[in-house]
Amino acid sequence: MLGAGAPAHAAPTGRALVLLEGGPRAQASAARAFLARTGARRAGPQVPQIGLVTVDVPNGRPFSAFARALRADPAVASVQSEGRMSLRATSNDPALRRAETALGTPPGTPQQWPAIRQRFERAWDFTTGAGALVGVIDTGVDGTHPELASKIAAAVDQDAYSDNALTDEEGHGTHVASLACATTGNGVGIAGAGRDCRLIVEKSDLSDSSIAASIVDATDRGAHAINMSFGDAEPRPPVQAIVAAIDYAYARNVVLVGAAADEDVSDQGQPPNILQPTGTGPDVNAGRGLSVTASTLADRNPGTGTGTQISMAAAGAFGDFQDPSGPPGLLGVAPAAPARRLDGGLPLMANTCACRTSSEGATFAYLQGTSMSAPQVAAIAALMRVQNPDLSAADVIRLLKLTARRPAGAWTPELGWGILDAGTALEASAGLDRRTPSSRARAARRTRARRFRVRWSHSDAAPPGLHSSGVATVELWRAVRRGRYRRIGSYARARSRLVRGVPGRAYSFFTIAVDAAGNREPRPARPDVTVRVRR
């Protein structure tokens, strides 16, 4: 579909939409009278049938103040900031539309059903992911594959037994990376969850030191999220080097995502049990990352990790592991060269399905398990960080949990906070204001008056495409001579205050703005202005 879409916060145009009272009865004469009374300047379509007048917001004047002035006119029914919608982000990747033909698949199910169930295209209405970086710590990638060749932002070999991060002898890393960031819209194969995101490939031999080094290196290279589709085979004490690396990344607002176990066990092993420690899963605010288990087309856990170390779920298998019907996993990219995970004669079980296929001349394969679930979550986390750069890792982690689709209506040991809903997650991150407002006081620097006026201005800018919550109050702080600063007032609407002064004294002022979301402007290092009252 190529139509006008409406993300939750459309980009502002700098104009205001004014609806006049009377709806269809508000004719052009009423609009002319309104413009004459208010001095507003018409700047766009006038639609008398519905009483619409489009006007310019004066340069330098906050929209909130301009809107208040217009609403004071008795003829005005409403005033809103005008936005601009965007074309729906669509994709021509065949797997999004082509029907899955495996026996036991419900009619009409597309090959890439996880993208539909988890609403990737709705997420792309908010951002296509340009600039998003996903770190993938795994077995490398086939850097020549048409779905990945243009997606490599960096490739680092942390594998003691390899000398090229852009090769993948296992096939696992290529498949995982493609689910996160496969080239989308190229008419080949699949669409990556992160659409236009790019990859920081950290090829690892999965030793503890290699994992720790990979986490730190991907963080230093600017990763917004890091995917880790691996874990301990048996429970063991925490590896402090990995804990330190996770702390290093989390402190830099990297969203860390770990794959839960591929068995129905309650201890997910490291790193997921570090990201979501035992007992913390039901707490939406707990954890330094996300421990992701698998879900099926029927919104069930197929037999993967459960318990209080589970944060959430994402598509990882078509059906239960014991059920032979349907496709044997999720469709993803496979290396063109032989790969042990795909061609080694491994038994048919989670993550070891030797099922190659092809699409438009490129190589693909089906694999199942939590390894396939985690990179989809990591990619959406990276999109959220780029869409709203003021969000912390904790913000993104919490929003992904809260927006997950919960078949049971609450946190459960089987699916955690629910199944990834990319569209709702991006909508929620667009609406979360974490940017601090700004303000500044001004006044004449010298005066003989015993009473002088201090004025201030303020703004609450938002990242492109998002809306700010607006300044709620401005605090005025004053110090006499070099004394201690004290707050002398807090104002919701006023833009100035008369202040008494004593001849021969100096008064320093600064303001602190607080917006409607509770973001508080930091105290400035120096006063905005110092006023000296002459004798």
Structural commentary:
The protein is an alpha/beta fold. It has three domains: 4-87, Alpha-Beta Plaits, CATH 3.30.70.80; 130-326 and 369-422, Rossmann fold; 438-533, Immunoglobulin-like. Helices cover 21% and strands 26% of the residues. The protein contains twelve helices and 24 strands. The strands form six sheets. The protein has a seven-stranded parallel β-sheet, with helices on both faces. Strands 18-24-23-20-21 form a five-stranded mixed β-sheet, with no helix packed on it. Helix 8 links the parallel strand 11 (255-259) and strand 12. Helix 4 runs parallel beside helix 12 and helix 6 (208-220) packs parallel to helix 7. The longest helix has 18 residues, at 370-387. It is globular, with a radius of gyration of 28 Å. The N and C termini lie far apart (74 Å). 46% of the residues are buried.
The chain-level structural class is alpha/beta
- Tell me, rounded to a whole number, the average pLDDT: 92
What is the terminal-to-terminal distance?
74 Å
Helix count, per DSSP? 12
- Please give the CATH architecture of the largest domain: 3-Layer(aba) Sandwich
CATH class of the largest domain: Alpha Beta
The biggest beta sheet reads:
7 strands, parallel
Strand order, main sheet: write it out.
8-9-7-10-11-12-13
From the spread of the alpha carbons, the general shape counts as globular
| Helix percent band | 10-25%
- The CATH topology of the largest domain is what? Rossmann fold
List low-confidence stretches.
1-9, 346-353
